[in-house]
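Appendix B, record 7
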Amino acid sequence: MKISIDRNTEAYLSDEDILEVVLDANQQLEEALEDCISGLINPLIVRGPPGVGKTEAVKIATRQSGIKSTDLLSTDFQPPSKEDIKDGCPPYPWNPVGPLATVDGALIRGADYSRWAFAADLYANKDNGILCMDDNDDMLKDKIAIAMLMGATEQSDERVVSYVKANSTNELKIYGVESRFQVSTPVIILTNIDMKLLVAYAQQKEKDGKRVKDAYISRWEALMSRGTYVDLQMNTPRSVRVWCEEAVRGKKELITNSKFLEEKYGRSLTTSEAEEVMKWIRENQGKLADRLDFRTYLKVAGIHLDKKKKDWKKSAQVRYLHAVS
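Structure tokens (predicted):
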């Protein structure tokens, strides 16, 4: 039986037990990414806290697979000339200035996302590429956006996305996006929301006759049913710390082989210095001003390497812990 880590279960687990569960979840993610890239899974939903490597895992897997995605929003377009319009050329769509912009790997869109941009990305990659929605939690509750997502992940030979406003949205008219089109684009959803828990809660409330499920909850239920849902099992501060320490000591070599640290400070930390940083964070995790993630280790490592800081622990305390009144 697989263990699900939460505040109740982790009290009975050692750090080694927790790491085993988290590593198993990450192995599941790696295999699911392979299946998504090959078209066997759509959508892939990955749930986990920010800053623990979800986005990086998608970047690495899709780039290594040779995926190329189209980015209309980063492409320059120019309108037809007045002379061309006089000669009968339609005012839309505009012509791209040079080739369409592409990215290596999946096209990853962060939290600041809109319906029309989602429609443009699906249209641009309707025949190839991969679209990754990265912590677009508001979009997952938006009636129109999630309807497009349902169309793009339909389990049939015809996956039809419909966005009626394409005919009246200036940006989409410029790009030539149709109001209805077929796609074969795999979609990856990275989220902080525990969708499985919320769906189960809503199901129970509905069963008890206390509340009808929200429409988007029903859509989440359908998305998880047709695709694959991976919970990275980092549901507590301790499980996040255990995973971050694995990233320091393991193959990731987070702060002992860091391009960021080497570019900014001239070198990474030694193994013994990294152990000092991990010990300091472990002892002060409950006092951190911000959520613990990979960036925390890089920030504290930077303080350790800053030659201007005579007492790096004191500097780290002032910079990254809650002020003591």
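Remarks on this record: The first helix runs from residue 15 to 37. The first strand starts at residue 44 and ends at 47.
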